[in-house]
Design a protein that fits this description.
By secondary structure, this protein is mainly beta. It has one helix and seven strands; from the N terminus they run βββββββα. It has a seven-stranded antiparallel sheet, with helices on one face. The two termini are 25 Å apart.
Length: 94
């Protein structure tokens, strides 16, 4: 088991389908890909994920009340993660 050591943003919010994830995501990025995890108490059955950039398509998407950044994953095409545009810009710049 290897710990993700690059830049991380804790207590972030997002949406996967109808599931709202309010302030429970830790999101990390590095040159190789995107890291996602939940707090320990929510992690049972949901281990940390690391998805390489070549398996991710990033688009800007108009949500119900705001614009967001959407991550689509080639290996699980029905799963999409939406985060705020502001967080998306921070992730993609750093």
């Amino acid at each position: 088991k290897t710990e993700f050591v690059d830049k991380k943003w804790h207590h972030q919010s997002g949406r996967m389908g109808l599931l709202g994830l309010r302030r429970v995501l830790t999101i990390g990025v590095n040159t190789a890909g995107l890291y996602l995890t939940f707090p320990f108490f929510l992690r049972i059955g949901n281990p940390p994920l690391f998805i390489p950039w070549h398996d991710i398509t990033i688009t800007e998407h108009e949500g119900f009340r705001y614009f967001c950044v959407q991550f689509a994953f080639s290996k699980v095409p029905n799963v999409k993660l939406r985060i705020t545009r502001k967080l998306g810009e921070q992730l993609l710049v750093d």
